[in-house]
Amino acid sequence: MNIYKILTEIEKTDPEVYDKLGSRREVFKHFAGFGKKLAVAAVPLAFGSMFKKAYGQTSGGLIGILNYALTLEYLEAEFYTMAVAKAPGGSAGFIPSGEPIGAITTIRDHENAHVNFLKSAITAAGGTPAAKPTFDFSAGNGSNNGPFADVFTNYQTFLAVAQAFEDTGVRAYKGQADKITDNAVLTAALQIHSVEARHAAHIRRMRGQKGWITGKDGGNMPAATQAVYNGEENTNQAGVNVATLPGSSVNIGTEAFDEPLDMNVVLAIVDPFIV
Fold first, then answer.
1. What pTM does this model have?
2. Within the chain, what is the greatest distance between any pair of CA atoms?
3. Which helix (H) or strand (E) holds 107?
4. Distance between CA atoms of residues 155 and 92, nearest Å
5. Which regions form coiled coils (predicted)?
6. CA–CA gap between residue 74 and residue 194 (Å, rounded)
7. Over the stretch 15-73, which tens digit does the pLDDT of each residue have?
8. Residue 70 CB-half CA count within 13 A
9. Is 24 helix (H, G, I), strand (E, B) or coil?
């Protein structure tokens, strides 16, 4: 790890960073002997402390947002992990072998990577990662007999729930973007956001649906998932009604722009899946 290069890049992104931390000389002097004092594995903790001092992110700010994201990633990671474990190679006719199980396995690995990254980022910023909840993927709040009781035996139900999770994740990350003031964390969140969007489009294709959302129609989705798509019918973007632009329409206007979701709405959506 080239500490000097990292600090230089931070300085390019935020020229005022040293006004928040102390002089440039003091910061470089602090890190000059860092490797002699602590193991390399502890370097992220030092940077986390530095960022916390510089940008004033509290447990209700950056840490709160990261733990919110971590809970959503726990949900997705556990969902795909359980699905793959219950249907390796398409056993019991659950997930077909070949491309379907391969795609779900890859998505599982992505979600677990997101979990591990967020836990590390929270720790590095001086916070405590939220514990992984117990999940009921039938959406029965622990009864395992909710509207998706056959989620791990019926392939189509599984894909519908997967799509709902992915579409929620895309909107959830977007909903917090303007609240993240740490540029490095914002960049990482946007990188995760784009991968979640790719997951959503891929799952949609596996269901035989188009890759985008028209109005607030999720695409042949169960009624219990409608909250995931409410608000997507918005055509007002930055004060412009995009549906009235040349060559546009309500359908095009809603398809061309994806909408964010407020944290409270997202938490209400996932609440039935958490025991």
1. 0.77
2. 64
3. helix 99-124
4. 11
5. none
6. 18
7. 554 554 555 555 555 555 444 444 444 444 444 444 444 434 444 588 999 999 999 99
8. 22
9. helix
